[in-house]
TrEMBL record:
Keyword Cell inner membrane: no
Domain of life: Eukaryota
Protein name: Tubulin--tyrosine ligase-like protein 9
InterPro entries cross-referenced by the UniProt entry: TTL/TTLL_fam
Entry-linked Gene3D superfamilies: ATP-grasp fold, B domain (3.30.470.20)
Keyword Ligase carried by entry: yes
One term of GO molecular function: ligase activity
Keyword terms of this UniProt record: Ligase
Length: 486
C-alpha cells in the first residue's frame, strides 16, 4: 500500500468518521485505478497475442520459400513475438494479483476503522449507563476507588500534550482498556482550544486532570522544574547558585574573576527552561550579567571542580529517572528510582578553555548507563539525593496532595566528580521517552510499562527496574484545595 493512507488509531468520533470516509474513498479510487491498470495490461497482452499470431502466419509462409535468410528472419521474429507475449501475460497476471491484494489490504484497513467506531460507540453507551470510573471532585463524587466488577477501563487523549497520548497507548496494550472519544470543550480568547472526554464524562486516565481518575501531573511540580525554587530548599545538593533578575544580582553577588585567574566555565541558565535550550557557557559572573536579558530570571553556577570525564575525556552527566506518586489520601508520597538510566556525553573532549556548547553542554541521551563502571557506585547517592528533595518538598507543603492518585515520570540531571561525589543540576518534568516502535534498539518501553503498573497495577504487569526509594507524609491539603484541584 505504498503511498496509501493507512488506518491509524482515532481519539475522537469526528476523527474516526473522517478517516473511515477517507479510507472508503481511497478504496474506490484505488480499485478503479487498479482495474484500469489490469485492463491496460490485458489489452497489451491481446496486442502481443495478435502480433505473435501474425508473426506465426508470416513464418509459415516463409517456410515455403527457398530464401534461407528469409526463413531465419521469420523464425527470429516469431521467437521475439512469443517472448513478448510471454512477458506480457506474466505482467498481466502480476498486475491482477497486485490489484486484488491492494483491494484486500484496503478492505482490511476499512474493517479496522469500522471496528474502532463500533468500539467507540460501545464505550459511549457503557459510560452513559454508569460503567465508567467514579471520579472524585466536580466531575463525580466520593473517593476515586476502582470497582472490582468493571469490565472496561477508559482513557482519552484531550490534546494537552506531554506524555498523555503515550501513556494512553501503553494502557491500551492491556486487554481491558479502551479509548473513550474526546471532543472540543471550550476556546479561550487567544483561540486556544481545550478538549475533554465526550459529554464531559470522567475516565480512568486522560491528560486533562479535571476529568481523570488518575492524574499525570504532580501538583507543585514547579518547585522541582524551576531551578531557582529548587535551590531554595536543597542548596546542599546543588552547585552553589546565584540569581540574576532583571539584569541585577538578587541576594549574594559573586566575586569578579581576576584577570590572571586560570580559565573556568560559568553557566547562565534561565530558571524555568530545560534541556539545555537556555544554557550559556561564559567565562565569569560579570559576563553572565552582561548576557542576561531584561524581564528574565536566571541562575548562575560555576562549573564543579574535578568533573569525572568519560572514556576519551568527554564531559558527561547522568540522566536519572524517577517516578513520583501522590496517593489519593492527599498526604502520602512515594518515590521510585529507575536502575537503568542514561549518560549524556559531549561530542568534544572537555577543557576549561573551551566554552562551546559542544564541549560544555551535555543534553543528548547518548548511551545506556549500566556498563559505565561508576554507575553502581553512584546510583545510591543519586537515589538518596532525590529522596531528600521529595521528602523536604512534601514536608514543607511544596508538593500538594489531591483527592485522587497523581504521578509523574521525572528525570534528574547529576554530574559526578573524580571523588565520586554527585551534584544535582536540575529536574526535567516530561523528559524524553522513546518507544520500541520508533527506536527498536534503545527505548524506554519497559520503564513506562513498569511505572504504569505501579500507578495502576494489573495481573500482566511488572514494576520492572523501579526501586521504591521513599515513602513519606506531606502536609494535609486544605478542603478548599481539594475543591479547586481541577
Amino acid at each position: 500500500m505504498e503511498g496509501s493512507v493507512r488506518y491509524d488509531r482515532s481519539w475522537g468520533i469526528e476523527e474516526s468518521l473522517e478517516q473511515f470516509q477517507c479510507l472508503v474513498r481511497q478504496h474506490e479510487l484505488q480499485s478503479s485505478v487498479g482495474q484500469s491498470h489490469v485492463a491496460v495490461r490485458k489489452l497489451h497482452r491481446d496486442f502481443c497475442t495478435l502480433n505473435a499470431m501474425e508473426m506465426a502466419r508470416l513464418a509459415k509462409a516463409a517456410l515455403g520459400s527457398t530464401d534461407s535468410q528469409l526463413k531465419v528472419k521469420a523464425l527470429e521474429q516469431v521467437k521475439v513475438a512469443t517472448q513478448k507475449l510471454r512477458n506480457s501475460m506474466t505482467l498481466a497476471d502480476i498486475k491482477e494479483l497486485q490489484s486484488a491484494e491492494k483491494v484486500l489490504q484496503m478492505e482490511e484497513e476499512i474493517r479496522k476503522c469500522n471496528a474502532e467506531m463500533t468500539t467507540l460507540r460501545e464505550s459511549i453507551e457503557d459510560l452513559i449507563k454508569g460503567g465508567g470510573p467514579p471520579i472524585a471532585g466536580p466531575v463525580g463524587s466520593g473517593k476515586a476507588e476502582v470497582g472490582t466488577n468493571r469490565k472496561w477501563f477508559y482513557c482519552s487523549d484531550c490534546h494537552v500534550g506531554g506524555h498523555g497520548r503515550r501513556f494512553c497507548r501503553y494502557l491500551l496494550k492491556r486487554p481491558n482498556w479502551r479509548i473513550y472519544p474526546s471532543e472540543e470543550w471550550f476556546q479561550d480568547r487567544n483561540g486556544q482550544v481545550s478538549h475533554c472526554p465526550l459529554g464531559k464524562q470522567g475516565v480512568d486516565f486522560t491528560d486533562e486532570t479535571y476529568f481523570s481518575r488518575i492524574c499525570m501531573h504532580i501538583k507543585g511540580r514547579t518547585w522541582l522544574e524551576d531551578k531557582r525554587k529548587l535551590y531554595e530548599f536543597v542548596p546542599d545538593l546543588m552547585p552553589y547558585t546565584y540569581v540574576i533578575q532583571n539584569r541585577k544580582w538578587l541576594g549574594d553577588v559573586p566575586e569578579s574573576v581576576p584577570a590572571d585567574a586560570p580559565p573556568w566555565p560559568w553557566f547562565l541558565k534561565e530558571t524555568d527552561r530545560n534541556w539545555g535550550t537556555s544554557v550559556h557557557c561564559l567565562s565569569g559572573p560579570d559576563e553572565c550579567l552582561e548576557n542576561a536579558k531584561d524581564d528574565a530570571t536566571y541562575v548562575v553556577q560555576k562549573h564543579i571542580p574535578d568533573p569525572l570525564l568519560y572514556t576519551n575525556g568527554e564531559k558527561c552527566h547522568i540522566k536519572f529517572y524517577n517516578l513520583l506518586v501522590g496517593l489519593d489520601d492527599g498526604v502520602t508520597w512515594r518515590l521510585y528510582t529507575y536502575r537503568d538510566g542514561y549518560l549524556s556525553i559531549s561530542p568534544k573532549a572537555w577543557s576549561p578553555d573551551d566554552l562551546s556548547k559542544e564541549c560544555q553542554v551535555t543534553i543528548i541521551r547518548t548511551k545506556r548507563i549500566n556498563d559505565w563502571p561508576y554507575w553502581e557506585k553512584v546510583y545510591g547517592k543519586c537515589q538518596a539525593g532525590v529522596a531528600t528533595v521529595i521528602k523536604r518538598a512534601a514536608e514543607q507543603g511544596k508538593l500538594e496532595g489531591r483527592n485522587k492518585i497523581q504521578f509523574e515520570i521525572i528525570s534528574a540531571d547529576y554530574i559526578v566528580t573524580t571523588n565520586e561525589d554527585v551534584y544535582l543540576l536540575e529536574f526535567n518534568t516530561g523528559p524524553v521517552l522513546k518507544d520500541a516502535e520508533d527506536s527498536p534498539d534503545v527505548h524506554d518501553a519497559g520503564m513506562v510499562d513498569g511505572a504504569l503498573h505501579i500507578v495502576e497495577p494489573w495481573e500482566g504487569g511488572s514494576p520492572e527496574l523501579w526501586d521504591l526509594a521513599l515513602e513519606c507524609k506531606g502536609v494535609p491539603p486544605k478542603p478548599e484545595q481539594f475543591a479547586s484541584d481541577f
